[in-house]
What does this fold into?
Amino acid sequence: MSESGFDRNSTMELLAFSEDLPSLPDRFVKIQKIAQDPASSADDLAAVIRSDQATTAMILKFANSPAYNPTHTPIGELSKAIARLGSRETVHIATAMSLMYGMILPTGMANIRAFWGHAFAVALVCEHMAHVVDPAGKNCNHERAFMTGLLHDIGRAALGMRVDFSYFEREVGHLHDAALIEAEVAYYGMHHGEAGQQLLQLWQFPDALSQAVAEHHNPEATQFLARVCYAANAYVNRHLPERLSFDSIHELITEAIAVSPPDYSTILS
It folds into this structure.
């Protein structure tokens, strides 16, 4: 039994209680269906995005940012913003936003933005690293690398929503890396990677993705996707601010990689 009163078995039971299982936001599911349907169009994507004001505003903000608007030509129509960003980037932004506003975490909005800002940054770096070390996608699909990064800390959300509503207000909610893992095991009998794997399996995500989430803090992980996520997470923690403005993440990552390229050797080992 841990000092908090939770042990591994009780934590697992709470995470697996199906009648009160956190569900994926409807908008997340709709966006993923559109992204995976070769017959879908930019109009289909726009129709889903338009249903949420915050996501629409963020897509327009990205499209008008210097990274995507070098000629400083402002646009105010969602269809033009999607055309400027491209469907892939639009899906990435909209997917992250659907999680940020669709999963009700028991903490203040500033912490929620920081949580999903970090997740989005790790997702983008995961995708970048996967492209660099595996351009043909033989070891892992690049979109799956992005999704692994976006969901790598979903176990923290699961612990906060299902096991301990005070998770994000405790000291553990503000730790990183080995200190975080040690504190979670002490409090809950398991760490957030394992909790994330449990939740993703209940949501019926692919085994490779849920395993990578489980092992994303293990520098000696045998799975390629887990090593990508470990390296991306470590890079973001080391080179980017802890609290990120969502619309500045692309630019900050581009600048960081130009100055301090990631160490890709850890992924290939």
About this structure: The longest helix spans residues 109-133.
